[in-house]
Write a structure and sequence with these properties.
It contains six helices and twelve strands. The strands form three sheets. Strands 1, 2, 3 and 4 form a four-stranded mixed beta sheet that branches. Strands 5, 6, 7 and 8 form a four-stranded mixed beta sheet that branches. Strands 9, 10, 11 and 12 form a four-stranded mixed beta sheet that branches. The longest helix has 14 residues. The termini are close together.
Length: 217
């Protein structure tokens, strides 16, 4: 697939994505399979939706998301209001350990810091705040430190990859070193590469995942 063909495919997927209000405001550039999204959208949710849409397109090797979030005037909120709403959202999220996450807000951007024992808790914290009214972006700086220091079982990750219908497990190799996982091989899409990483993070005891998987042209 040429860069021009890939560009058209990404644009069509953006038009198909219902969470993007104005797809025409999203610019798409492609060079050597790397997609750059530019322009502006009205919410952080739209920015993420555009990135997810591009991820789904076959042939995309990587994505650079340069979309700017420009909130409508009616959506503007003070940092104090956003911080209060974010703290409340985290308190109501059962997957996030209470008092483990610290929230700061600067210019509409939420910064999350803290330490959790599971990667899904890091994701849950971000999911709890990213769709809040007035948010322009989220920086998730939460560290994952397993409560039990033990070696990750390589075979359990390999079996999990085989069970995932979105992944060609035969093309991926798994290496482990203590609590670190290294993924290698070649897959068909950027989405498949990300899915393999998500699977690896779900294994007990994982503190770090190094994703060295290549995306086929």
């Amino acid at each position: 697939m040429t860069d021009q063909e890939l560009k058209r495919s990404v644009e069509e997927e953006l038009n198909w994505e219902r969470d993007i209000k104005s797809p025409t405001k999203v610019g798409v550039g492609v060079k050597d399979g790397i997609v750059t999204l530019s322009g502006h959208v009205e919410s952080y949710t739209e920015k993420l939706a555009a990135e997810e849409a591009a991820t789904r397109v076959a042939g995309v090797k990587a994505i650079v998301n340069e979309l700017d979030v420009r909130l409508p005037f009616s959506s503007e909120r003070t940092d104090e209001d956003i911080a209060r709403a974010a703290a409340n959202a985290l308190d109501w999220t059962t997957a996030v350990p209470r008092d483990q996450i610290k929230v700061t807000v600067n210019g509409g951007w939420i910064i999350l810091r803290g330490v959790v024992p599971w990667y899904f808790q890091k994701l849950a914290a971000e999911a709890a705040v990213r769709d809040l009214f007035g948010v322009k972006g989220v920086r998730n700086l939460i560290d994952v430190q397993p409560s039990v220091n033990r070696a990750v079982v390589k075979s359990s990750i390999e079996e999990a990859l085989k069970r995932d219908a979105e992944i060609d497990a035969k093309s991926i190799t798994v290496e482990t070193s203590g609590s670190k996982v290294i993924l290698k091989g070649k897959v068909r899409s950027w989405f498949e590469k990300q899915e393999a990483e998500r699977v690896a993070w779900r294994a007990p005891g994982v503190a770090k995942v190094e994703n060295a998987i290549d995306v086929a042209a």
